[in-house]
Amino acid sequence: MVNLNIPITITKNGLLKNQDEKKAINEFVEAIITAKMFDTPADPDFGFILNNLRFEIFNENEGVILNSGETGEGVAVEGLYDKKVSGTSKNINTFAADLKEKVTQYETRLEDTNVSMTYIREERQIYITVKGTVKSTKEPYSYTHVTRVWN
């Protein structure tokens, strides 16, 4: 479970603004990356579709996920199994492009967002990097998440 650090905290003296905006952004980006789509009743589109495919068959040679027919209810499968696991958000046929769309939609404190995903076969891990600019400070932003491949 991810503990989100929202911009304000309720104290006995009133509202206290969180001064560590980057930490709050990191935690929210982590929540987007680790949440499965369709698991949040208030907003079924929240989350990253790759997590819905954790028990699918991963083809390491092609860098794609194969359709086992077990994606679950509500998962839109059109074009899903043609997407590359490794790639950048500049390429439309990648999971990185999907994640960039989600981060852009939900994490509005960032601008000029780019996402890259790299599968390291020897480690059996996917490195996800989200980069952009923090709107309020114009400082560069970078966050890296590592996930193990599931087969």
Written account of the structure:
- The protein has 151 residues and is α+β, with helices and mostly antiparallel strands.
- 17% of the residues lie in helices and 30% in strands.
- It contains 2 helices and 8 strands, in the order ββαβββαβββ.
- Strand 6 (110-120) and strand 7 (125-134) form a beta hairpin.
Mind sketching the topology for me?
Layout: E1 8-11, E2 14-17, H1 21-34, E3 57-59, E4 64-66, E5 87-88, H2 95-106, E6 110-120, E7 125-134, E8 140-148
Antiparallel strand pairs: 1-2, 3-4, 5-6, 6-7, 7-8
Structural class: alpha+beta
Stretches where pLDDT is under 50 for at least 5 consecutive residues are none
Q: Compute the average pLDDT.
A: 82
The quaternary state of the protein chains shown equals single chain
Instruction: Give a quick account of the main beta sheet: strands, pairing sense, barrel closure.
Output: 4 strands, antiparallel
Biggest sheet: strand arrangement: 5-6-7-8
Strand content: 25-35%
Total number of β-strand segments?
8
Question: What's the N-to-C terminus distance?
Answer: 23 Å
In DSSP terms, counting alpha (H) and pi (I) runs of 4 or more, how many helices?
A: 2
List keywords for this structure.
151 residues, alpha+beta, globular
